[in-house]
Write a structure and sequence with these properties.
single chain, elongated, 20 strands, eight-stranded mixed β-sheet, alpha+beta, 37% strand
């Protein structure tokens, strides 16, 4: 799939956590995980790496020192796991926060971006023998949602947090802080809200926050902002080891534009490529033309290579190449024009579209009824406006019978 990645701004989400040393651990029977590696710590000479996670009877004595490490954040990519974590957090929060605007599922659309991330915290004890023995890993599942609309400059950032025991009996009580920030094209980082403190709730209880975000309006497809966040853990009553993982770039994006052709300002998720639909029952000749070409090259077909909207000069150049005004050149490209008994008002149709970078030289051309060409033109105009497809944006064409 051809995807052009623009350059733009960055939104930073800074997350810190504070967990109390408490006997209120939550036991959860789980399978013994694969062997864990605890990185060497320069602050504790002679540390020995632990082997596989110990069974409960192998745990060290309670009077041994408790240590924690914030492990590198991971982005969840498995669709089933995204649905499990993200949808669960959103639905549970909607029940807990009656005043919160519900977001329907953790899916990505043109006007919504959703990502799920896991911030693991390894907890272990070290006895007098110097051996570091892990006794549990607590995951803080982070679900981030950006929601906007076609004609609304404001984007809403929804943040959901849920603790989940990966294995063992880690400490699960405490608090964490969350500070969303944004880095613009000038590289200057600025918070978009004050730091908030949340309880690290027992598994199954969601912490939730909503932040209104007024993104800078752009007139270019590259003027987007990207979420990032940094995670650090500070757990009271324990010894924090190892450096924090640092800033994590999510690549979730917001773009708000003020393009005059779209009417009012609005925001989109530019990483989602919208799809225009051609129905054979409405424009049969053009739909068949697209199907024939896509069967050979896959250009513009969903899950194939996307098309990219071009500007007016590009459209004029493409049409001059593929559907020229010269009758002689049209005859060379399209063949003899159909007679009235074969087609009503024949006109030239090209695919890939003249309004795409992929149109022009090498495009397939065919005679189609003028009525269909006009209908297709109206469809594309509404599609571009309704999805805020700017010059430089990618999109798909789904032709179906």
């Amino acid at each position: 799939m051809s995807q052009r990645r623009p350059f733009g701004a960055i939104i930073a989400l800074v997350l810190t956590m504070q967990v109390l040393s408490s006997a209120n651990a939550f036991a959860q029977p789980v399978d013994t995980p694969a062997p864990l590696e605890v990185p060497d710590s320069p602050t504790v000479p002679g540390e020995q790496l632990p082997g596989p996670a110990p069974a409960p009877e192998q745990l060290p004595t309670p009077d041994s020192e408790i240590f924690v490490r914030s492990l590198p954040i991971v982005q969840v990519t498995d669709p089933a796991e995204i649905q499990r974590i993200g949808d669960s957090a959103i639905q549970e929060s909607a029940q807990q926060q009656r005043s919160a605007t519900p977001i329907q599922g953790c899916n990505n659309t043109r006007f919504k971006s959703c990502g799920v991330y896991i911030a693991p915290i390894l907890q272990y004890r070290r006895g007098t023998d110097g051996v570091a023995v892990p006794f549990g890993t607590l995951n803080v599942n982070i679900t981030l949602v950006m929601s906007s609309s076609v004609n609304n400059r404001q984007s809403n950032i929804f943040a959901y947090f849920e603790s989940e025991i990966e294995w063992g009996t880690p400490i699960t009580t405490g608090t964490f802080t969350f500070t969303p920030s944004k880095v613009g094209p000038d590289g200057i980082q600025a918070p978009i809200a004050e730091m908030r403190t949340f309880n690290l709730n027992p598994p199954g209880v969601i912490s939730y926050e909503q932040y209104p975000e007024f993104s800078k309006l752009t007139t270019s497809s590259i003027g987007w902002s990207t979420y990032t966040f940094a995670w650090t853990s500070v757990i009271a009553g324990t010894i924090q080891e190892g450096p924090p993982p640092g800033t994590f770039y999510t690549e979730q994006r917001i773009r708000c534009d003020s393009t005059a052709a779209f009417g009012a300002a609005g925001c989109v998720n530019p990483t989602n490529y919208p799809t225009v639909y051609y129905n054979k029952a409405v424009i049969p000749t053009i739909t068949q033309h697209v199907l024939d070409r896509q069967a050979i090259t896959g250009e513009g077909r969903p899950f194939g290579s996307s098309l990219t909207r071009t500007n007016k000069d590009g459209i004029d150049l493409n049409r001059d190449i593929s559907c020229p005004a010269s009758q002689l050149r049209r005859l060379e490209l399209l063949g003899e024009k159909p007679g009235p008994d074969e087609m009503e008002n024949p006109s030239c149709d090209e695919y890939p579209l003249a309004s795409s970078d992929q149109g022009g030289s090498g495009a397939s051309v065919r005679w189609v009824p003028l009525k269909e060409n006009n209908s297709q033109g109206g469809t594309m105009s509404q599609f571009y406006k309704g999805n805020r497809v700017m010059v430089g944006d990618n999109f798909y064409v789904n032709a179906f019978n």
